[in-house]
Write a structure and sequence with these properties.
The protein is of the alpha+beta class. The chain has a domain at 39-123: Sufe protein. Chain: A. It is built from three helices and three strands. It has helices at residues 3-30, 87-95, 107-123; strands at residues 45-53, 56-65, 68-78. Strands 1-2-3 form a three-stranded antiparallel beta sheet. Strand 2 and strand 3 form a beta hairpin. It is elongated and about 70 Å long.
């Protein structure tokens, strides 16, 4: 068998494995629920949260003062270039709630970032 044919078979096998794993991650993110947290019940402080549902990863640092979110830093976020999910931080800050719409074109990444924020806020309750 020629080297080119072996290379094609190898590429096809890798693609099959990636696609099978991709379906699993899509299901996990689609089933991810975001609980709205009563911000007024969160103690003053800085809290961290992180979620990893490969290939999407997010880590945040959330600052709360006097019953309001005063800052959200996206410490780590990976889902490929220019997905725009970072916009979700401003939406949460404006609404002072996790019940915000996902960023169009970055729905999965938005959900993972929101879940990380939820985890951080729950640490302060």
């Amino acid at each position: 068998m020629s080297r080119t044919r072996w290379l094609r078979i190898l590429i096809a096998c890798i693609a099959a494995v990636v696609l099978a794993g991709g379906c699993s991650f899509v299901q996990k993110i689609e089933q991810l629920t975001i609980d709205d947290v009563d911000i007024a019940s969160v103690r003053n402080g800085e809290y961290t949260g992180s979620v990893r549902i490969l290939p999407v990863t997010a880590a945040v640092r959330v600052t709360v003062k006097d019953g309001a979110i005063t800052g959200i830093d996206l410490v780590r976020h990976f889902h490929g270039p220019d997905h725009g999910a970072e916009q979700i931080l401003g939406r949460v800050m404006s609404a002072q709630s996790l019940a915000v719409d996902a960023v169009a074109g970055a729905t999965y990444s938005s959900k993972v970032v929101l879940k990380a924020i939820e985890q951080a806020l729950k640490k302060g309750q």
